[in-house]
Amino acid sequence: MEKDLFTLINEKLSGLSKGHKLIANYILSHYDKAAFMTAQKLGKTVGVSESTVVRFASELGYDGYPALQKGLQELMRNKLTTVQRIEVTSDLMSSDNVLERVLNLDIDKIRRTLEETSKEDFNNAVDTIVSCNTLYIMGTRSAASIASFLAYYLGLIFPHVKLVQSTTTSELFEKIMRIDEKDAMIGISFPRYSKQTVKALKYAKSNGANVIAITDSKASPIAKYADSLLLARSDMASFVDSLVAPLSLINALIVAVSIRNIDRVSQTFERLEKVWAEYDVYAKSEEDTQ
């Protein structure tokens, strides 16, 4: 079958029966969940029978539901092009409900992140960050912003935090070449996944470093290198990657690390407050000047 699942659904959506439209709209909105649901589970979720789900697969030209599911999982691995993201989003929301729709989707992503992230892996990640010699943090493209955020705050707590920023593969390996079993690396990557981040985590793992992966799925290419896998939902909102849930997870990670090192954190910020005051770092609000 040459066309991907989303293309097939969008082409046939207007002519589908009521039950099939329920399935189609659920897949478009929750493709990450639907990719791993049985026909029975998908039917129960949207309120139709299992046989309706099977007929839906046939309606799209698949040889049964397992073939449709395989196609959806393949789409999950390859993710969507920017153009496909825009096209799917236009079917899901109109210009007059964007604010409500996007914010509610982000709320749902945080809730699902809380349900799906392993608390054991989260605690192991905290232990790793606290005990390692040097902590390397890497995130590229849209993930670079939250990698920088994480590195900034952990850098206030620990002296040996390195934010790995690179423009070429050779530069990347020059920056992480000394990583070893006493160190740790946090890799952050969401669809569409960065090959550089995958290469960096693979190298870190091969050198015995403890790897923490922050990503969206167990099927993510960085997940297989993780000693601690932290999952945060990052579904699309048009061509924009939603980083609300990943940032919330990172906030929790920073807070947990700071609680584990409360004395060090208190001393650090006491010194910083003096420095900030002495060198007039922060501007005052109008309320403070009255």
From TrEMBL:
<dbReference type="InterPro" id="IPR046348">
    <property type="entry name" value="SIS_dom_sf"/>
</dbReference>
<dbReference type="InterPro" id="IPR047640">
    <property type="entry name" value="RpiR-like"/>
</dbReference>
<dbReference type="InterPro" id="IPR009057">
    <property type="entry name" value="Homeodomain-like_sf"/>
</dbReference>
<protein>
    <submittedName>
        <fullName>MurR/RpiR family transcriptional regulator</fullName>
    </submittedName>
</protein>
<keyword id="KW-0238">DNA-binding</keyword>
<dbReference type="InterPro" id="IPR035472">
    <property type="entry name" value="RpiR-like_SIS"/>
</dbReference>
<keyword id="KW-0805">Transcription regulation</keyword>
<dbReference type="Pfam" id="PF01418">
    <property type="entry name" value="HTH_6"/>
</dbReference>
<keyword id="KW-0804">Transcription</keyword>
<dbReference type="InterPro" id="IPR036388">
    <property type="entry name" value="WH-like_DNA-bd_sf"/>
</dbReference>
<dbReference type="Pfam" id="PF01380">
    <property type="entry name" value="SIS"/>
</dbReference>
<feature type="domain" description="SIS">
    <location>
        <begin position="125"/>
        <end position="265"/>
    </location>
</feature>
<feature type="domain" description="HTH rpiR-type">
    <location>
        <begin position="3"/>
        <end position="79"/>
    </location>
</feature>
<dbReference type="GO" id="GO:0003700">
    <property type="term" value="F:DNA-binding transcription factor activity"/>
</dbReference>
<dbReference type="GO" id="GO:1901135">
    <property type="term" value="P:carbohydrate derivative metabolic process"/>
</dbReference>
<dbReference type="GO" id="GO:0003677">
    <property type="term" value="F:DNA binding"/>
</dbReference>
<dbReference type="InterPro" id="IPR000281">
    <property type="entry name" value="HTH_RpiR"/>
</dbReference>
<dbReference type="GO" id="GO:0097367">
    <property type="term" value="F:carbohydrate derivative binding"/>
</dbReference>
<dbReference type="InterPro" id="IPR001347">
    <property type="entry name" value="SIS_dom"/>
</dbReference>
